[in-house]
Amino acid sequence: xxxxxxxxxxxxxxxxxxxxxxxxxxxxxxxxxxxxxxxxxxxxxxxxxxxxxxxxxxxxxxxxxxxxxxxxxxxxxxxxxxxxxxxxxxxxxxxxxxxxxxxxxxxxxxxxxxxxxxxxxxxxxxxxxxxxxxxxxxxxxxxxxxxxxxxxxxxxxxxxxxxxxxxxxxxxxxxxxxxxxxxxxxxxxxxxxxxxxxxxxxxxxxxxxxxxxxxxxxxxxxxxxxxxxxxxxxxxxxxxxxxxxxxxxxxxxxxxxxxxxxxxxxxxxxxxxxxxxxxxxxxxxxxxxxxxxxxxxxxxxxxxxxxxxxxxxxxxxxxxxxxxxxxxxxxxxxxxxxxxxxxxxxxxxxxxxxxxxxxxxxxxxxxxxxxxxxxxxxxxxxxxxxxxxxxxxxxxxxxxxxxxxxxxxxxxxxxxxxxxxxxxxxxxxxxxxxxxxxxxxxxxxxxxxxxxxxxxxxxxxxxxxxxxxxxxxxxxxxxxxxxxx
Length: 485
Description:
This protein is an alpha+beta fold. It is 40% helix and 18% strand.
């Protein structure tokens, strides 16, 4: 899943929690202005909260991975990983987004066509009054009021209601929530809350009308008479937009106790708890150096004394760890390695390069540090590697042999962590000239290939490479076979 969809999922969780609280606790209170402000502010906050990372600074990130030499005509098998799946979720999300966007565009076009058909008059307050001959429900949008000429003449209180919508800038709320529904079209609580927000607008406008001295009973009778309309402009603030019974009930309801405003504070611990759930204490371990391949420019040397351990590249049957390759060992180290507290306190970080031998009996031994960073970090690497479970040994000509591994461990704080991607690197003076053959075809640069998609890899050098690929292969050839989907 892409980082964007993960962000959408987290923000949708925050929105669902926040809106559920509003719908269950605050929707029936008479704090119209406060509810509206906090509802909008909370929506914006729910978009920002997933960007925060609590406690991550306190947890170090350990990145480890095998460093292996690949000689001529040898093969490297990538670690087990499924090929990238078809992006069904991404396509479904885009389809839903485009559907809601199309529906919104149609509603906007219908509304503006109605506005253009009417006769426009600019009022002293700067508001545009659009009068139509058709008997349509009145509504307001921006600084424009649209109503039938009949309603303008017979029911001037309707214009007073729509002017209240404009003075309180309800259109801005609708625009914000329209954007929210576009992004979170799949969340039903978003749509329910949009409907409640429009109802909240009506409560505010009704309250403003009654505060002008309009008789409440006559106003409620007008609402009943105008309850049925032929057309509705779902983006606009309309006189008949909201549920009639709820509006009348709210007019008759006694003002809520001022102490109930403090109920909004109850949502804070729930949001804080959700933030901690989305930011666990344990940091995710990233094998950012897995695998890192070194391509030698010279012909392989004669086999060394097998009693001291053969280099990985010169072993016919590679050792395996718990049924997998060296990548499985890297994962095991990730799970058991700890960042020494003394090194954390001193803010020490860096790359420790260790060497160890997998014996002919599969036991790990002769662990030593080739390049250290800090005594405590070096000691931790030696401790973990020395405690490794037994391997399945490597074989040469049917006989088990000792195999030498060079293994880097990178200690970094989470703030400086590398992206969660695996890369393959080729080192050497002419590294950029190495020819890459991917699935039988000349492929991209090696750095652009994800190792997790590789089934096997073969390296050709010297005359062998030139004989097979001509002068293109004079600097070396890497043949890669991808995993089958």
